[in-house]
């Protein structure tokens, strides 16, 4: 719902006439996107995943670890956040705990490993390139922990990586069950491939429903933003950014969707942050951040768009009655009603202050809706990338830092590492 982002109610806002003019560019962009999908071009290929991903292949590969009580996914960025979005959103429907080791903060890594019963834990190591230092280092640490505990890690590990590289070599050497990151699919667009779905399968989620939800969203892609919710979002965010809303705060109203905001932040930042362009994504959580960030969103600089995510139907819990007169109104309500009232009040309060906001609505938090959300936001991002005319699917700044890190640790000769050494010597 982009009604609260229109110029008639918000500043900055975009007028209906401006959106109609922008629609010509959306039609051209859509042609370009369709061509890219048909030709299986790098990046655009991600939008073919609902048809391309084979759940049976994933199920067969994870068979040896399907009984795990805990699954440690070792991966970072696009190799972790898609899986984490799905399993964290659906955590209350799974008996398997999903743990994500992305950071290499030593205290945190040790504390995670110390608390796990490794006999009943499986490892899901994911790296498209197979060279990312954080992932490979954490994997070596986890492997060592299994060995020290006398647990055969080769029986408990599944690998998802590209055709070649150190992780592929390691996987071949130990004959580990493995899956391939599909060609043409950048990390942050890979949630609907084995990259995101191995963890979902081990946690017992419905892979077909995830893909069906994504496929239904794919069906809506068309040459007009007025007919396609994903393009409406991508075009509106672009138009608002052009008019000064350089910050996009995503605010899901469900704890289960907090990781979705984290995933979105990566998608938006790493895909669109190029050539001095791109909106800055911010993560917030309803209702919690009503008591911290909302003041700024309603009364601070007019440089923000707020993207609300409504979770739809959720389980509810009654608020117990009390004989304190001033609290009686709470006893007549449920926590769900309170949350909904807070959502409505916050949305209305921003609209009343003329602050642009958009609402993404799920029917409920399940596999089908999550598949649609992930696919829709990816399509929105690809469309926005076309409008900005940036290369949505590359990430040179990320690669720069990866090379510098390797070089600094003696993992090869990289000019990026020399640049860092030069800078640090000036301190
Ligand atoms: O989206 C991206 O390309 C990045 O966030 C990568 O996913 C991240 O850097 C991890 O890379 P890799 O999967 O090669 O280990």
From TrEMBL:
<keyword id="KW-0312">Gluconeogenesis</keyword>
<dbReference type="GO" id="GO:0006096">
    <property type="term" value="P:glycolytic process"/>
</dbReference>
<keyword id="KW-0324">Glycolysis</keyword>
<dbReference type="InterPro" id="IPR046348">
    <property type="entry name" value="SIS_dom_sf"/>
</dbReference>
<dbReference type="GO" id="GO:0048029">
    <property type="term" value="F:monosaccharide binding"/>
</dbReference>
<dbReference type="GO" id="GO:0051156">
    <property type="term" value="P:glucose 6-phosphate metabolic process"/>
</dbReference>
<protein>
    <recommendedName>
        <fullName>Probable glucose-6-phosphate isomerase</fullName>
        <ecNumber>5.3.1.9</ecNumber>
    </recommendedName>
</protein>
<dbReference type="GO" id="GO:0097367">
    <property type="term" value="F:carbohydrate derivative binding"/>
</dbReference>
<feature type="active site">
    <location>
        <position position="291"/>
    </location>
</feature>
<comment type="similarity">
    <text>Belongs to the GPI family.</text>
</comment>
<dbReference type="Pfam" id="PF00342">
    <property type="entry name" value="PGI"/>
</dbReference>
<comment type="function">
    <text>Catalyzes the reversible isomerization of glucose-6-phosphate to fructose-6-phosphate.</text>
</comment>
<keyword id="KW-0413">Isomerase</keyword>
<comment type="pathway">
    <text>Carbohydrate degradation; glycolysis; D-glyceraldehyde 3-phosphate and glycerone phosphate from D-glucose: step 2/4.</text>
</comment>
<dbReference type="GO" id="GO:0006094">
    <property type="term" value="P:gluconeogenesis"/>
</dbReference>
<dbReference type="GO" id="GO:0004347">
    <property type="term" value="F:glucose-6-phosphate isomerase activity"/>
</dbReference>
<dbReference type="InterPro" id="IPR001672">
    <property type="entry name" value="G6P_Isomerase"/>
</dbReference>
<feature type="active site">
    <location>
        <position position="402"/>
    </location>
</feature>
<dbReference type="GO" id="GO:0005829">
    <property type="term" value="C:cytosol"/>
</dbReference>
<dbReference type="InterPro" id="IPR035476">
    <property type="entry name" value="SIS_PGI_1"/>
</dbReference>
<comment type="pathway">
    <text>Carbohydrate biosynthesis; gluconeogenesis.</text>
</comment>
<keyword id="KW-0963">Cytoplasm</keyword>
<feature type="active site" description="Proton donor">
    <location>
        <position position="270"/>
    </location>
</feature>
<dbReference type="InterPro" id="IPR018189">
    <property type="entry name" value="Phosphoglucose_isomerase_CS"/>
</dbReference>
């Amino acid at each position: 719902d982009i009604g609260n982002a229109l110029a008639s109610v918000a500043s900055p806002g975009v007028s209906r006439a401006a959106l109609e003019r922008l629609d010509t560019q959306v039609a051209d962009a859509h042609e370009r996107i369709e061509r890219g999908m048909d030709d299986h071009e790098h990046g655009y290929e991600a939008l073919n995943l609902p048809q391309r991903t084979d759940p049976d292949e994933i199920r067969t590969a994870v068979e040896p670890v399907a009984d795990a009580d805990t699954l440690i996914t070792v991966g970072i960025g696009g190799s972790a956040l898609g899986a984490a979005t799905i399993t964290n959103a659906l955590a209350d429907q799974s008996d398997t705990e999903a743990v994500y080791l992305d950071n290499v903060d030593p205290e945190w890594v040790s504390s995670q490993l110390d608390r796990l019963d490794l006999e009943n834990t499986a490892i899901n190591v994911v790296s498209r390139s197979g060279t990312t230092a954080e992932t490979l280092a954490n994997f070596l640490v986890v492997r060592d922990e299994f060995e020290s505990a006398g647990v055969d890690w080769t029986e408990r590990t599944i690998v998802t990586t590209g055709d070649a590289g150190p992780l592929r070599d390691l996987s071949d050497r130990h004959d580990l069950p493995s899956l391939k990151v599909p060609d043409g699919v950048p990390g942050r667009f890979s949630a609907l491939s084995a990259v995101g779905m191995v963890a979902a399968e081990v946690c017992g989620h419905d892979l077909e429903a995830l893909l069906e939800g994504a496929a239904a969203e794919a069906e809506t892609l068309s040459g007009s933003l007025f007919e396609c919710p994903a393009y409406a979002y991508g075009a509106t965010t672009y138009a608002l950014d052009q008019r000064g809303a350089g910050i996009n705060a995503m605010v899901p109203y469900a704890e289960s969707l907090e990781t979705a905001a984290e995933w979105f932040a990566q998608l938006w930042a790493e895909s669109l942050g190029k050539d001095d362009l791109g909106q800055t994504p911010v993560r917030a959580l309803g209702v919690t951040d009503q008591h911290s960030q909302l003041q700024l969103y309603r009364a601070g600089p007019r440089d923000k768009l707020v993207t609300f995510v409504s979770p739809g139907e959720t389980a509810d819990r009654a608020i117990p009655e009390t004989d304190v007169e001033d609290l009686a109104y709470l006893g007549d309500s449920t926590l769900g009603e309170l949350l909904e009232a807070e959502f409505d009040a916050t949305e209305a309060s921003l609209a009343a202050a003329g602050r642009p906001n958009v609402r993404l609505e799920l029917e409920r938090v399940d596999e089908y809706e999550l598949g649609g959300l992930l696919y829709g936001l990816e399509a929105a991002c690809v469309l926005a990338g076309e409008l900005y005319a940036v290369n949505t699917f590359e990430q040179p700044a990320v690669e720069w830092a990866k090379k510098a890190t390797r070089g600094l640790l003696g993992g090869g000769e990289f000019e990026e590492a020399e640049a860092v050494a030069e800078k640090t010597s000036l301190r």
